Protein 1
Amino acid sequence: MRHLMSPLDFNTEELEQLFQLANRIEANPEAYSHACDGKKLATCFYEPSTRTRLSFEAAMLNLGGSVLGFADQANSSAAKGESVADTIRVISCYADICAMRHPKEGAPMVASMNSQIPVINAGDGGHQHPTQTLTDLLTIRSLKGTLGGLVIGLCGDLKFGRTVHSLINALVRYPDISFILISPEELRLPDYIREDVLKANHVPYKEVVRLEDVMSELDLLYMTRVQKERFFNEEDYVRMKDFYILDKKKMTLAGPDMLVLHPLPRVNEIAVEVDSDPRAVYFKQAQYGVYARMALILTLLNISVD
């Protein structure tokens, strides 16, 4: 039995197999529409989510399986004080695979250690969000044709953004990758990622404050929102939330093949006017999230389709 706690749980060869499967699903979804007949996915979401929870549910339903679970810990026995370990022991009796989101770092890991079924980390605090990373990698690979040789701009909340942290960890394994880290001083990338991931792997990077200064250098711009839920006080959030807004004027500074990704939800960091730009692929990215999760479910359940 295998779990997914981190993007690094799959090596690059295994990721390639996963992405090839996702692309086959994209090309011929009908061939996989009964692959999980009789299988059940439990979605255990201890904090709010739209895309991640619904994309997991869509993925399982697309595969012919069924879904059960909860979307808020207030509607679960956690509200009565039940531990994550006990919850997953019970869910192991009801479902074949579980996707868990939790505000506490490491909670899905605790679940995996007490589970009789595969557990997928669907986000744990500001720590990891591996299925978003699989989605991001699949999007880049599908639209750029490669995961190497790219200059990637990461913009916005680089301090608390778990999607950014996971993506950096995953991408440093590919050749000729470099990063431009675009953030205000208060939301810079944590030291441990800068030292233990970028510098330790000899990956080139630079840190800037102004997005306009580097748009022309980028193959890919990964925008993030400033996350209100990660701030300890309202004043700091209000001061930071409008620091970056990508609009049509800034897009004129970018190359014709530069892609804009965003894990969503968007607040106001990307102006609606950018949506019609063919380089804006964040809604395609959401669709790739379903294919990535379909491929992951099949892989963890050891289900193959001839």
Protein 2
Amino acid sequence: MKRIIPLLLLFCVLSVMPARAKVLRFGLTGGINVTKPSGDHWKADNENGWYAGVKTKISMPVVGLGLDLGVTYSMEKVSITDPDNGLEAKDKIYYVSVPLNLRYDLSLPAIGYILTPYIALGPQLNYACNDFKTDWENDSFSTKRMLWRLNLGAGAMLFNHLEVGYRYGIPLGNTIEWKDMEKSNLESGIHQIGLTYYF
């Protein structure tokens, strides 16, 4: 929560600034993701997925600082193997995600309209819409409904409309939690490459 408060305060400040001092834009976003699970007990494979949704960006053109807020629907595949008995499981988890990123746009003289690089940092809340399922007889685990990640990203705005970006979501909690204390819970970071078109 302490990480989110400064971003929310900045968002409020930017929201009440005069219109001539800020730029507010809306767009459609989507792309591919690669889930990167990890756990001490499990052998986990990277899996491909996708995401799509809407995004808004508010920025101060003079200093380059701003925020972007999105709402996306995503599919993440999770594939794990229990090395003790060789059991394998693979399933899809669908999330409604809300990223809120602080960003800095680097304005380049003469070519700023064509190419504007940016970096971004911020939290992302993910709500799981379904449970991870297996056909194991004793699968005593549950999918974590609310999953937080910390996004680190970079990219570029092209021709003032098309944004190309990459980000990595660092897990701040478990994706799957086992009731068996001898087994490690599973975390999942995520690589995302996407496009956003701003109107």
Protein 3
Amino acid sequence: MDFTFQVLNNTRTIFKNILENHTLETLNNIPAGFNNNIIWNIGHSLVSEQLLAYKLSGLEPNVSAEMIDKYRKDSKPEANISQEEVDEIKALLLSSLEKTQSDYSAGIFKTYTEYTVSTTGNTLHNIDEALQFIAVHEGLHYGYVLALIKVLKV
């Protein structure tokens, strides 16, 4: 899993840099033809990792229930978010992943509730498969973020 965590860390670092290098207005902007924005894609990636790794392992996620509701699958931006919320997501990007890696190394992910992901149709049977899918999922949303940046011409 070392390589999977390396990929996730690299993607999260890219997300953090995007948050640091774009204005709040740009992060909240939903261009024509899109149903979400840059910050939603990054928040969604963070929340999805917590749900796929922790929740399906019967463990408590390391993000708030409010954040989960705001960025979970089938959610969409309801209003512009504040700089404080951006800063919270930015802080959680690497710290939550470090916690996941530490917990994985400590062997706390003992059980797993099978889950079939809608994007690919794959069924996740255990934490290893979940982490591999999380890397794919975050790559997918990185692609969405890049498309948004291109459309927004920033």
